[in-house]
């Protein structure tokens, strides 16, 4: 299948490109490299450097590439930044995504797969969270992702476009070649591993007074390869709609740090800090729908196994990608 991967130089997009190439798909990566790394793009894929804000350039690219499916990973991902600069999130995650969607529709692309987020649920009333739980985002990042989910629904109803929107919980882990290298890095597991590598003196714990057993936030960590496998399954014809992707188990910030200590065999000092604005206390997925309808089954549900793959990557590439 000829597949366009936007954001293929980023964390999840680069892993997806690797797995699609492994299975013999023809992959075209489109990435602005504002955040991604050129060296993260699998050499088996064709690379096109995007300039998203020039009107018409996405439509021109789509007409030239003529993919059968689009996997749209490109986007901004920082909840905190979205509280400071909401316009960036509505522009890049809604307006720019719409350019890709409209261009895909014009080329009769069969399937559009979109990276949505658990942040569309806001502060959930119940965990594990099912797909029909109320969506009340508490930050512009989640709001923008929800707006685009709704746009997808209308394109399906009106144009018959088949879409899948995956609501990611906390992606973590690595393959041998591709791992997590955000600059700046705000995510918990890579920050803890940087302490284990001796690159930082301690990890900061954002909030110890949450209504959870140890007072720190609980998240559902999912191996990036398991996450990507769901996207590959979703390429099958007839799969359409919204799916959570998580393991259905939650780990607190302190439990993550303890797991990283066990995996690395190194002590990881932590400093308690105030809460980070916009963090819900507990996000845990029910991924029963993905399992039932896609036949998806995570292969690395255990946190220590996920951390071990991230640790192997960080040890191999202590400074991340060269660019
Ligand atoms: N945390 C710390 N110290 C750190 C980094 C994070 O204590 O140095 C805490 C956070 O406050 C949070 C937890 O660890 O409670 C996880 O934080 P991450 O930044 O790793 O991930 P988030 O849960 O904030 O966000 C991630 C993605 C979002 C996505 C969300 C959905 O980055 O894009 O998961 O659950 F929307």
TrEMBL record:
Domain of life the protein comes from: Bacteria
Gene3D superfamilies per record: NAD(P)-binding Rossmann-like Domain, UDP-galactose 4-epimerase, domain 1
Q: Which principal EC class is assigned to this enzyme?
A: isomerase
Keywords from the named record:
Carbohydrate metabolism, Isomerase, NAD
Q: What is its EC number?
A: 5.1.3.2
> What cofactor does this one take?
NAD(+)
Q: Tell me what reaction this enzyme catalyses.
A: UDP-alpha-D-glucose = UDP-alpha-D-galactose
The chain positions of domain NAD-dependent epimerase/dehydratase read: 3-237
Its GO biological process terms?
galactose catabolic process via UDP-galactose, Leloir pathway
Family, according to the entry, reads as follows: Belongs to the NAD(P)-dependent epimerase/dehydratase family.
How does the annotation summarize its subunit structure? Answer: Homodimer.
* Name of the molecule in the record: UDP-glucose 4-epimerase
| Species, as recorded | Limisphaera ngatamarikiensis
